[in-house]
Amino acid sequence: MLVDLIEECNMTLLEIENIHAEVDGRPILRGINLSIEAGRIHAIMGPNGSGKSTLTYVLTGRESCKVTQGSISFCGRDLLSMEPDERAIAGLFLAMQYPVELPGVSGLTFLREAVNARRKVAGEELVDSMEFLKMVRSKANSLGVSDEMLKRSVNVGFSGGEKKRNEILQMAMLEPRFCILDETDSGLDIDALKVVSDGVNSLRSSDRSMLVITHYQRLLDYIEPDLVHVLAHGRIQKTGGKELALQLEQRGYINFIETAA
Amino acid sequence: MSATADTLRHVEEFTSRAYKHGFVTEICMDMAPKGLDESTVRFISNKKEEPDWLLEKRLQALNYWRLMKEPNWAKITHPPIDYNGLYYYAAPLDKPKLNSLKEVSPELLVTYEKLGIPLKEQELLAGVVAVDAVFDSVSVATTYKKELEKCGIVFCSISEAVRNHSELTRRYLGSVVPSMDNFFACLNSAVFTDGSFVYIPKGVRCPIELSTYFRINAQNTGQFERTLIIADEGSYVSYLEGCTAPQRDENQLHAAVVELIALDNAEIKYSTVQNWYPGDENGNGGIYNFVTKRGICRGKYAKISWTQVETGSAITWKYPSCILQGDGSVGEFYSVAITNNLQQADTGTKMIHLGKDTKSTIVSKGISAGNSNNTYRGLVRAGRRADRARNFTQCDSLLIGDKCGAHTVPYIESKNPSSRIEHEATASKISEDQLFYCTSRGLSAENAVGLIVNGFCKEVMKELPMEFAIEAQKLVAISLEGSVG
């Protein structure tokens, strides 16, 4: 569906060039350069306050993050000129660190609205609630999301694990070209981490890219990245293979913080 | 901080779209002369071919009314209403003594279609909803009447009921809301033109939802509906009322009276969706809606349930109430009130516990946007004999933007030490987090507002009959966003 929507991308899906951004007037990102090809998984690791979440919000268009310099192209389109909903429909998805509660809005309704928003743009027929439940069920089951959970208000009273599983379910339903996972491992026990990672891995494909943000190497045992970047002080300080994550696990971020300072 | 301002601007944009139902049907009108005096009242009574007892009641009300003053305790302001500058009676000229929709003037049907009122559809979907459609002041079409007659149910215009069921109307009309109850009810008692009458006989469960669509059309015409519903012992009825009105510059006065009577073990469910013209963003035009709705549970274990979704009108002044007289009787009030731009709503309920073991539940959801003011005003009273009376009240307010107001004014009076009354209240805002969460999934910002607000109202929406719930959800979205379907 989205493939029809978006013109065939080049090998490079996302191209971030010299991005500077601030939040409430404070500079957070100070010149990020990152290029992600289709089918690749990149991980970003970094200490608290390094700008990881800000980067996700710059990509998804959250108003509180102001881009002061630089450009981002997504499938050849100027991402920064697009509204958050346009970016989502173009194939960007952010699995949030802290998914938001929507009291009174059932998970099923929420997901259906999101799917229908895409169908509307594509000029396809909208899906009704009965039909939709059938569509969701198999994907939901593999993530351990029950019908009962789908009928509950979005994220209201969910455990940490339920919230994250729900994010991955949304991702599975919306079939994005580019997935951003913001500390998806936080608040998960080993079993939940396994379920969520399996869900993510099942979405790996040659035309889908991912940006996995995490503090810990542990997640990368489950979701294996092609490249690892270290973000500190608003810049990518180092890029390497999977082994970089192991190094960080042993030595911490302290070297990068000193280098930057 | 600019981001927050930007979010607000977006929300405001979506919350101030033009009213969808602003159009006017051109049909010749038969009108009473402008102004209000004895001759107006006689004109109306004469037009309706009413019996003397009703004319006398009307004239008596007019005399009371002249001595009364407009109430000023509500949190609303408006320029003075010139009661003598209004027309009190208007009827479509092509006099409607009709047996089917085919006989209704095509222009009228087009109007209904524009409003999305599925009158034709309903005729096709036989047995789903019976419609006693009110166009201005005269009933123009009554469907499913015969079906109902088979069960002994009377569902007709109040004028017809006065002529054909005088025993019931004489006994019950004004028995719950007496003429002198309040200024607007008194005005209504003098000049009411039409409305619906329902009688459900003993032990009968009304097989279909009863529905009336109101529509104010004639310029400068006050609309004075009068509705009377009587549920005899052990009976059940669900009544739906919905309304929209065309756009006009001048304010239009509406002062309806609704009376419900539930006898032993009877249950009445009364649902309203109100979408009258709210005025433009500058507060020009819009309906003044001063309504008196009250039900009495006369019998043991009777139940009256009010559900309302109020999105329209420049001013809403409305307190659907329950008098819980019979022992073990139950009163419920579920309300969604949305105000936007310069709309003002002062609405709530009164639960008057008189009998033993009476119970009441109040769930009120107020949503304010733009520069509007939204007030919940409610009274819970437990009388001396109301042993073990119980009430639970929940009032939630949702604010959109920072220029609107939400107010909660609960009055609680207990004269019985064994009564138990609970009141909970919350106030919150639509957060930027929630909006972003939705838009980051591909929902447009306007769709997101609609979804979040409908979620906030869910407890009330689920009380609406199925047929109405979808329409109401659309309305909630429309009144805040303009175009979400």
From TrEMBL, chain B:
Show where the SUF system FeS cluster assembly SufBD N-terminal domain sits.
Answer: 137-205
UniProt xrefs under SUPFAM superfamilies = Stabilizer of iron transporter SufD
GO BP term, example: iron-sulfur cluster assembly
Q: Pfam families per the record?
A: SUFBD_core (PF01458), SufBD_N (PF19295)
Q: What residues does the SUF system FeS cluster assembly SufBD core domain cover? A: 214-456
InterPro entries given in the database record: Fe-S_cluster_assembly_SufBD (IPR055346), SUF_FeS_clus_asmbl_SufB (IPR010231), SUF_FeS_clus_asmbl_SufBD_core (IPR000825), SUF_FeS_clus_asmbl_SufBD_sf (IPR037284), SufBD_N (IPR045595)
**NCBIfam families for the chain:** PRK11814.1, sufB
Q: Belongs to which family?
A: Belongs to the iron-sulfur cluster assembly SufBD family.
This chain's protein is named FeS assembly protein SufB
Upper lineage ranks?
Bacteria, Pseudomonadati, Pseudomonadota, Alphaproteobacteria, Rhodospirillales
